[in-house]
Amino acid sequence: MGLALALATRGEETWFVTERGSELVERLKGTYLRWEQARLRGMAGLMGVARLARRFQEMGVEIVHVHDAASQAVCGLAARRAVGARLAVGTRLAVGTRLAGRPRVVVTRRTEFPLRWPGLAKYRLCDKVICVSEAVRRRCLEAGLPEKLLTVIPDFVDCRHFDPEAVQAKGGEAGQIAMVGRLSRTKGHRLMLRAMREIAKAEPEVGLVICGTGEEEAALKAEADSLGVRARVRFAGFVPEVRAVLAEAKVFVMPSLSEGLGVAVLEAMAMEKPVVASDAGGLPEAVVDGETGVVTRAGDAKGLAEAVISLLREGERAKAMGRAGRERALAHYDRPRVIERVMEVYEEVLGRAGG
């Protein structure tokens, strides 16, 4: 949704299509975006391809930009059936000018999970695949996708919103460690809970706040109990204003076992927080080891604990890393820079009219 809003502020005509029953609906209601719901997944989605194609034609869609892998096939097929269009973004988004011919399909891939048949077939419906990191691009190449189909453009962070000067830390939780992300197995929460045993021994006052919801919530709370660290861990659930949590944090952690890039890391960097991240996927591309944070081996609880403890104890070093992190976020991941690169991709695929 962030891309759709950013494009809309640039004067682009943006139309957002989301799966029926999506949790995004409530968020969309609070925006000025045009949006509607449709069946985009599974057999129900495939049965609705003709209807979606008609909507693309009615709206004059030029570009269908897909951000949801589960909707990719349906959106791609609908784009192939639509003729005489404008500029859009399907599954998540849309934009505007006139162009004869079918809408072009751009897909953003954010995960580094291996691509396998039959999932590979839907990429034949794409005009361009945006990979959020080199790690994701390598996975696509390994799966056999042609190099000319791929380009690397990272996710972005709004550095004006995620600005340490914009949020005043209350100073209520000394030594707080922050972790933000969906509560799923790949995010490394269990690893962090094991690391907390060692961190709490070395720094008895330290606390960990975990922001996010997901299928692992009950299991993670039980794990914290069994490890004896429950008193030092706060499960904050969904936090609408995550800046407040980041403002209080001394260290941000992302010990993922698999990660395309990690938007939460970019937000922490923009807030001048030193980051301890695993070497999974695209994380080492965002976090420069020894400069903006510390990169540890994925799955290494001991190494994770040692890295966090060192940053908690070496305040000046941690602050220097935080400042370097914001500079890196501004230079490489700030919203206007990334949006310009996305627009260049749109122009590229629109230049292939009639293909």
Characterise this structure.
- The protein is α/β, with parallel strands linked by helices.
- The chain folds into two domains: 2-155 and 335-350, Glycogen Phosphorylase B (Rossmann fold), CATH 3.40.50.2000; 164-333, Glycogen Phosphorylase B (Rossmann fold).
- It is built from 14 helices and 14 strands.
- The chain has helices at 2-9, 24-29, 42-47, 49-59, 72-81, 134-142, 189-202, 217-227, 242-248, 263-270, 283-286, 301-313, 315-333, 335-350, and strands at 15-19, 34-38, 63-66, 85-89, 93-99, 104-109, 128-131, 150-152, 176-180, 207-211, 233-237, 251-254, 275-278, 293-296.
- The strands form four sheets. A six-stranded parallel β-sheet has the order 11-10-9-12-13-14, with helices on both faces. The chain has a four-stranded parallel β-sheet with strand order 3-6-7-8.
- The radius of gyration is 21 Å and the shape is elongated.
Short description:
The chain is α/β, with parallel strands linked by helices and 355 residues long.
